[in-house]
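Researcher: I'd like a structural prediction for the single chain below. Treat it as a standalone chain; there are no partners to consider.
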Amino acid sequence: MKAMLSQPMAGKTQEEIVATREKAVKALESLGYEVVNTLFTDEWYSSENMKERGVVQIPLCFLAKSLENMSKCHAAYFCNGWQDARGCRIEHAAAKAYGLTVIYEDEKAPSEEGAKQRIQKWIYKK
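Model: Treating it as a single chain, here is the predicted structure.
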């Protein structure tokens, strides 16, 4: 089973993004999911290269790639704050519309031992 992360990044430091991502990956792996990459950092997605390719709406390009990767997934994990991020809201609507299992990060940080049980209560199926 594969899952993707939907993570708000605007206004976050690189350290905050990485820490949130590592926590989410650990939670998903504890549930038995393989995590599909939705953090596109290779040279193809640099602002300069995208502009050279004619990409005008860079955030939309990232969203398109994220939705493509969603097509490979059984579940989507939404990190806290997803409701405030335009791309995350679109990913959420797509996940619900296409019947992926939707997992929400608990508002309280779960302990390592209780992470699986606490996250499972947030799993919803359409």
